[in-house]
Hints:
Mean pLDDT: 89
Strand content: 35-45%
Low-confidence stretches: none
Number of strands: 10
Shape: elongated
Radius of gyration: 21 Å
Number of helices: 7
Order of helices and strands: HHHEEEHEHEEHEHEEE
Strand order of the largest sheet: 4-5-6-9-8-7
Amino acid sequence: ESLLDQIESGKLVPGQRLAPERELSQTLGVNRVTLRQALQLLETQGLLIRRQGHGTHIAEPKIERQAGKLFSFTRGMERRGYKPGAKVIVFNERPVEASIAKHLKLRVSAPVYEIHRLRFVNKEPVLLEQFTIPVQRFPKLDQHDLAHRSMFEVMEKEYGIVVSQARTSLEPVTATDYEAKLFGIETGSPLMLELRLSFDKDNQPVEYGKDLYRGNRFRFVTDMASLEL
């Protein structure tokens, strides 16, 4: 609680290195076992970063994301003063499986693009986007620069399709070996999974997304309406 108060009050600032454990335990008046438990808890909450041989540092503040609104990562990060980036990890054309075909209103085995794109904030990987997109609506999508352009922008400017709404859900998950390697974090670290089905202005599905946000870099918020009885 003492460390948390110092972080929230700004006495400890992002990037600042904490004193060594021996000195810190004396300052806070706790034994080192208790201190290590506290540090582990604060690290799990995304408030501290501990690296072997580099000590413990105060983490950057979490990026807030509105949970109930469509979100363009590129424009959203630029508005917040960050430098966004992207790297295409997977780009495949394959037959769609039955579970996703149902969401996209496609026949089973219809061709779709499977795209995995790693997103960066100030060169730090923070989000793994995983799209499934119908080939019939977006032919030759591989000819467009998805490493430097917003997916929604490409849909609108190159294909005349505007994403106007989406159905989303959020659930906490833990990082697999694949995801942990891409993010540079430990396997089992907390992530937030956003499942998304996007629709055009005619209410036709255009994209099925499974996005994974690093739990220590993002916070999802929503505005509360009046109480429903």
